[in-house]
Amino acid sequence: MRKKIVAGNWKMNTLVREGVALASDINTELKNINLPDDVQVIIAPPFTHIAFAEQVIDGNKLYVAGQNCATENEGAYTGEVSAAMLKALGCSSVITGHSERRAYYHETSEILAKKTEQILKNDMMPIFCCGEKLEERKAEKHFDVVKNQISEALFHLGENDFSKIVIAYEPVWAIGTGVTASKEQAQEMHSYIRKITDEKYGKEISENLTILYGGSVKPANAKEIFSMPDVDGGLIGGAALKADSFIDIIKAIL
Ligand code: 13P
Description:
Elements: E1 4-9, H1 16-30, E2 39-44, H2 47-55, E3 62-66, H3 83-89, E4 93-96, H4 99-104, H5 109-121, E5 125-130, H6 134-138, H7 142-154, H8 159-162, E6 166-169, H9 183-201, H10 203-208, E7 210-214, H11 219-226, E8 233-236, H12 243-251
Helix pairs in contact: 1-2, 1-12, 5-7, 11-12
The protein binds 1,3-dihydroxyacetonephosphate (13P).
């Protein structure tokens, strides 16, 4: 069964006390919602908050993700956090390939392939982000860009590993800008991602692939975007930093 996911990427926001309060508020409000088995809610706080956030949430309703991880498992890599360390804290997934990491930290497909392997090796679910820049869309290169991002970082994986991946389509021009892709633009790219997955891994895996949309999702537009057949949820930035708006977005997928 294809999972639906609403995930909040907090990015580098909140101090630990605020973050723990946010996690606790989301957890409390989630208790009033009857979440179907196929819907998963995830928060991705900064690394420094994860251990504390874990203490205030019910792990069977609300899951915790890392926002990033190292390419290596352990060793002399000052400042890095490994997938194994995140797993040991109770994380069930890790975001990779976010456009901010590609742009500011020069993360290449080769690096993202290694990170994805680390996440899988530690029995967690990679949430792999892809998406084109505005100039690439204007030049009508958006399909090629997304295809290259996915095939370069993921298509070396075997069927079993690939079936654990979640893909988040986040057009760079829609992130933090207030400009959301139209529901048609999201659907068109999501169905393209499913098509290239089908070509590589076959129907069963492509039909079960969860594809999230990210980029200025808010309570006001979530329902419309989630109504599209190939949109299986969202990766939410700004609107995930307030419990009320995050909860409203979760309700939009029910
Ligand atoms: P916004 O929802 O703030 O546009 O951010 C989206 C995002 O980058 C989630 O990873």
